[in-house]
Specification:
The complex is a heterodimer.
Chain A: H1 9-18, H2 21-41, H3 44-57, H4 74-91, H5 93-121, E1 133-142, E2 145-149, H6 155-164, E3 168-175, E4 178-183, E5 188-196, H7 199-203, E6 208-211, E7 221-225, H8 226-233, E8 242-245, E9 249-257, E10 271-274, H9 275-281, H10 283-286, E11 297-303, H11 309-316, H12 326-329, E12 334-339, H13 340-343, E13 348-350, E14 353-356, H14 359-386, H15 388-401, H16 405-442, H17 453-478, H18 483-488, H19 497-529, E15 540-543, H20 548-552, H21 554-564, E16 567-573, E17 582-584, E18 587-589, E19 600-605, H22 609-613, E20 617-620, E21 633-637, H23 638-644, E22 653-656, E23 659-667, E24 683-686, E25 693-698, H24 704-718, E26 727-728, H25 729-735, H26 738-772, H27 774-782, H28 787-821, H29 832-858, H30 862-867
Parallel strand pairs in A: 5-10, 7-9, 19-24, 21-23
Antiparallel strand pairs in A: 1-2, 1-11, 1-12, 3-11, 4-5, 4-8, 6-9, 7-10, 8-9, 13-14, 15-25, 15-26, 16-25, 17-19, 18-22, 20-23, 21-24, 22-23
Chain B: H1 8-19, H2 27-38, H3 44-57, E1 60-65, E2 76-81, H4 83-102
Antiparallel strand pairs in B: 1-2
Classes of the chains: A alpha+beta, B mainly alpha.
């Protein structure tokens, strides 16, 4: 027991660090006596505290150990470090080149990633009430699976305001943000914008450049963003100008707000009109049969000071459920508030739970950036330690002349920090050059902030830290060698080859993982691109709805265009082929489980739609102009047939909102939304809306531009004032891959960088190895070793390291990629050959790099290599 | 004016050494004695610093003794007052007494003899 009750060790150990050696004994003795005495009356904890207190009180000048060395003129010494560092760098040009190249590439990459991450994290932060704003979302259970929707029915706004208002400063209902045709007297342009309740501008604290934000209380007013006002009215005063929205609403410009920064979801909100204008002017909203049914609007809230998002979410959870009809209640709508701070980075919900979103990419690139930097630092350390045998002699001599260890540490650190600063200069240059390219890949608009003091400060601190990390091993290890050993040459690189080997292995592991990663990302994209879409997208264009006149003269327009040879087919549909905008849960069929609530995507088309896009009829027939009864006909896709469990779908009756429809055909699945997900069970019906898109197939024998010109001319006949726009279906479809292709491109860049840096590393290492073994090789040659023997001898070590790296990298890459692929339902299995390819690729590159030096050394005439000394 | 050359704390510490038995006059004990006599606490480090300073001034001398088992066998530094130290202590006291005697409220009522 006596042992356990002795004074605490840690404070004594600390004491030993700073106290004069001759005092140590007596002070320890005193402390022990004090401790034992205190223990008689007090608890152990208190006694320990007493000892700590006493130790701290020994921090007095008389008790402190005196440093042995006093810098008389540190400036002189630093000048010397600087000079020797520069000389050393010039002497080992290859070494310096490798270090600076590697470090600068890595630093440029990391700084760009830091800028990118900063940009991502700054989303919405420009709004003053950033911390207090949220959007009301709903979780609805659909066929056993919880979906998260960001749209809500409009009466919810009043409901929340009236019954749950105490938690909120503002409750604001808005329409969705869509492009609208905004026209002044002289100009007509498509501009995104929305209709909002008056509090919207106060909530977002928009800064007004002209007019007043309150003016929006008058339903006949509109607010424009600065750039929009400029686009329409140039230098003229926009206030009081008359504009029309979608040719339906006439409004007066009452204010101009500063453009919303690009890193906000509202960045493309170019006008704000009054909600009342939309509500009173749009029949279908005002006279809805059940206004709680369509989820077509957005609801934003600003919390009151006392409320939190969690509490407010819990309170409003059932606000919708309590109001909706029995049928809708089956979907168990649960409301919650999604804070503005999460809108951009945390926006992916799975089964009602937040599972991440873009934050995954932010983390991923953060990790990759750190790895790239780590690899460059590893290179620096490796080359420095490889050189250590040479430097060891220098250390020995310096020590013999009288350098103390701290001076040597300072010298090595000043060398590495100097290298880091050279790299920073080069890195800034590289960044400037790479920035446009990076912006294009990442879809950003960032620029170098040369005037930003904070950035410079971060950059400089960052550089010093890099210098310290990179120089740590040589500085701390080399400076510890004793002078005698170093000069006698007892010190050999042998025993610290292990850490060096570990470092090389780490580098190659990272490279191989990145290589496999890149390959798999691209294979997955290709896999999804090769997926049969169920129609032919080639030459297909979608023209947004222009004027009802075209709809009325559909047949004339069609025959005119077909006759001219510009197109081969033309149809109408409620949305472009690559999108699906509406769904309905009001379907009933024979054998449906009465408790089931399921949404089917619905897609309205004209008679010629199937023929135009080239869908595949699997059974039954297409819609026909000749049969009037087809207005109550439906076509199902195969997934829908399978989902409903219809054995004999053709002729089956399906009730839609009570009305009977007849199934006349079954078509093969068409990929509409995400190419990575299974095709949803979809129901096609005949639509004769004036708001339909025109879908046309351009004649493949006709030049595309000429065909488009022709289409525009013909459309203009019936629709003079609305600009003709169009979109190629294959381009729209290709956009669905944008995110993954972006990841793929970035992965390629990083993998290339990683391999480049690793290769630079082993290039440097092999050059030192070759230099060290020059004599050995000479002797071996004299004894009859062939060029091949020598090459094998020297490559062996590196090849082994690469193989070990691959063994580590393969399972790592497999785990990471499997979890990435789980994001996609339509995915490929990771092909085994990607691992093989990466392994052999790395081996090949390694051997190529190593051979450069080994062969040149092996070819030297032994007479030359043995003659020295 | 007479220079006493001793601060209050220094003077008390020296007196503690005088009070303690010769063997016991090392920093830990001095601090303990100080505590029991004055009721004030002081850290060993603070006392040690003062002892060190008084030794440099020549008022104290010290020697190292082997430690007992209670100290875990650690050596201890025993302090003793030098002749100079004694003189300084005495001067300090006498100086104060002369000052006291000139204090009118106490004049005549003060009776101290040495």
């Amino acid at each position: 027991m006596k042992n356990t009750d002795s004074p605490p060790r840690l404070p004594l150990r600390i004491l030993r660090i700073f106290i004069r050696t001759e005092l140590m004994d007596e002070v320890t003795g005193d402390l022990k006596e004090l401790y034992d005495m205190s223990r008689l009356t007090r608890s152990r904890f208190i006694c320990r505290l007493i000892i700590w207190y006493e130790v701290i009180h020994y921090l007095r000048p008389f008790a402190l150990r005196k440093t042995k060395f006093i810098f008389v003129n540190p400036y002189c010494m630093y000048k010397s470090y600087f000079k020797t560092s520069l000389r050393g760098m010039f002497k080992n040009k290859l070494h310096t080149f490798i270090n600076i190249t590697g470090l600068s590439v890595a630093m440029a990459t990391v700084l760009i990633i830091v800028m990118w991450v900063g940009n991502e994290l700054a989303y919405e932060k420009n709004f003053k009430n950033y911390q207090r704003i949220g959007q009301v979302l709903q979780n609805v259970t659909n066929n056993g699976y919880v979906q998260t929707w960001n749209s809500i029915p409009y009466p919810l706004a009043d409901e929340v305001r009236k019954n749950y208002g105490s938690d909120f400063v503002h409750v604001v209902l808005t329409s969705g943000k869509y492009p609208h045709l905004l026209a002044s007297e002289t100009k007509k342009l498509n501009k995104s914008g929305l209709y909002a309740e008056p509090d919207f501008t106060t909530m977002l604290t928009l800064s007004m450049l002209a007019g007043s934000a309150d003016a929006i209380k008058d339903p006949s007013s509109v607010l424009l963003s600065a750039s929009t006002a400029n686009a329409y009215f140039g230098e003229a005063d926009p206030i009081g100008q008359i504009m029309t929205i979608d040719r339906e609403f006439t409004v007066k410009v009452a204010g101009v707000y500063e453009d919303i920064p690009t890193n906000s979801i509202f960045s493309d909100m170019h006008f704000i009109a009054a909600w009342d204008l939309l509500f009173n002017g749009t029949g279908w909203i005002k006279h809805m049969e059940d206004p709680w049914r369509p989820n077509a609007f957005s609801l934003y809230v600003q919390l009151a000071d006392h409320a939190t998002f969690e509490e407010a979410s819990a309170k409003i959870k059932d606000a919708k459920l309590k109001k909706v009809s029995e049928a809708l209640a089956k979907k168990k709508p649960e409301l919650f508030i999604h804070p503005m701070s999460q809108w951009h980075l945390y926006d992916k919900f799975e089964n009602g739970k937040l599972v991440g979103g873009r934050i995954q990419y932010v983390r991923l690139f953060g990790i990759v950036g750190s790895f790239v930097l780590l690899m460059a630092c590893i290179n620096f350390m490796n080359l420095s330690t490889a050189q250590s045998e040479k430097r060891a002699k220098e250390v020995g001599i310096r020590k013999a002349i009288g350098s103390i260890r701290s001076q040597l540490v300072a010298q090595f650190f000043s060398e590495s920090i100097l290298t880091a600063f050279f790299s920073l200069a080069l890195a800034l240059l590289l960044m400037q050059l790479m920035m446009p390219f990076f912006n294009a890949v990442a879809g950003k608009n960032m620029s170098m902030q040369w005037n930003n003091v904070l950035w410079w400060l971060i950059g400089i601190i960052f550089t010093i830290v890099i210098g310290l990390i990179a120089g740590s091993y040589p500085a701390l290890y080399l400076s510890s060698i004793s002078a005698g050993k170093a000069i006698k040459g007892v010190h050999k690189g042998g025993h610290h080859a292990i850490p060096r080997k570990v470092l090389v292995t780490v580098q190659f592991t990272v490279s191989v993982v990145l290589m496999v990663g890149t390959a798999v990302v691209f294979l997955q994209i290709k896999h999804a691109k090769d997926r049969p879409v169920g129609y032919s997208a080639n030459g297909l264009i979608a023209v947004p709805p222009m004027s009802p006149d075209i709809h009325k003269h559909f047949d004339v327009v069609k025959s005119e265009l077909v006759k001219s040879g510009a197109i081969v087919a033309m149809a109408e549909a409620v949305s472009p082929t690559t999108e699906q905008w509406s769904s309905s849960s009001q379907f009933d069929w024979k054998g449906k489980d009465p408790d089931l609530s399921v949404d089917f995507p619905t897609y309205g088309v004209s008679h010629d739609y199937g023929e135009t896009i080239g869908w595949e009829i699997k059974g039954g027939r297409d819609f026909s102009r000749d049969r009037l009864s087809d207005s109550t006909a439906l076509i199902l896709n195969e997934s829908a047939v399978a989902y409903m469990g219809l054995k004999n779908p053709i002729g089956e009756t399906i009730r839609w909102g009570g009305q009977a429809f007849e199934v006349i055909g079954v078509i093969g699945d068409i990929v509409v939304r995400s190419p990575y997900e299974p095709v949803s069970p979809t129901i096609y019906f005949l639509s004769t809306s004036e708001e339909n898109f025109l879908i046309m197939r351009i004649n493949p024998t006709f030049a595309t531009t000429a065909a488009l010109d022709k289409i525009e001319t013909v459309c203009k006949k019936y629709n003079a004032d609305i600009p003709f726009t169009y979109e190629f279906t294959d381009e729209a479809y290709a956009r669905k891959f944008g995110n993954e292709e972006r990841v793929g491109t970035l992965a390629t860049i990083f993998a290339t960088l990683a391999i480049l840096i690793s290769c630079l590393g082993i290039f440097g290492l092999s050059s030192f190895m070759a230099e060290q073994r020059t004599k050995e090789i000479g002797v071996r040659k004299v004894l009859g070793a062939s060029l091949f023997d020598l090459w094998r001898l020297m490559s062996k070590d590196f090849v082994l390291l690469v193989l070990i790296s691959c063994v580590i990298a393969v399972p790592t890459a497999y785990t990471i990629l499997s979890s990435w692929l789980e994001n996609f339902q339509y995915r490929l299995g990771i092909p085994w050959w990607t691992f093989l390819l990466a392994t052999f690729g790395t081996l090949f590159i390694t051997m190529l790099t190593v051979s450069w030096h080994t062969i040149s050394v092996a070819r030297v005439n032994p007479v030359k290599s043995l003659r020295a000394e | 004016m007479l220079e006493t050359r001793l601060g209050d704390f220094e003077e008390v510490i020296m007196l503690m050494i005088g009070i303690l038995e010769a063997e016991d006059a090392y920093s830990f004990r001095i601090v303990q004695e100080f505590k029991s006599q004055t009721g004030r606490t002081v850290s060993i480090g603070a006392a040690h610093a003062t002892l060190d300073r008084l030794e440099t001034k020549g008022f104290l001398r010290s020697e190292i003794r082997e430690g007992s088992a209670t100290r875990g066998g650690r050596r201890k530094r025993i302090y003793a007052i030098t002749a100079l130290g004694k003189r300084v202590l005495k001067e300090s006291m006498e100086f104060k007494v002369t000052l006291w005697k000139q204090y009118p409220a106490f004049a005549g009522k003060f009776n101290m003899s040495f």
